[in-house]
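Reminder to self: tokens first, then the designed residues, so the page reads top to bottom the way the pipeline ran.
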């Protein structure tokens, strides 16, 4: 139960934040929304790197607590699944928009 809560709480920060809606007649060119998405991907990469490092330590016998690796691997896996699901929904939404007739 605690593992699931820890994984979900750490993964919620991986999901990209919705960019602020531009006001009428203006166009957002700051790129802040895109930067926040890249920040989420950096977090995913960091989780995977930590999991990989702990896996190497576990294999070589340098890891004192196996639970650390188990938790890191579960967090990385859950974050990857969430990121893939968000990407799939974004592609699906884009495809639906492209099918709309003007």
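Designed residues (102 positions):
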């Amino acid at each position: 139960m605690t593992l699931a809560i820890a994984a979900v709480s750490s993964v919620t920060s991986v999901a990209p934040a919705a960019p602020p809606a531009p006001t009428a007649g203006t166009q957002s060119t700051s790129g802040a929304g895109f930067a926040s998405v890249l920040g989420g991907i950096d977090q995913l990469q960091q989780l995977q790197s930590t999991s990989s490092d702990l896996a190497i330590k576990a294999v070589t016998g340098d890891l004192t607590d196996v639970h650390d690796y188990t938790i890191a691997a579960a967090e990385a896996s859950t974050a990857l699944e969430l990121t893939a699901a968000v990407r799939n929904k974004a592609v699906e939404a884009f495809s639906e928009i492209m099918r709309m007739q003007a």
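The two ends are 49 Å apart (CA to CA).
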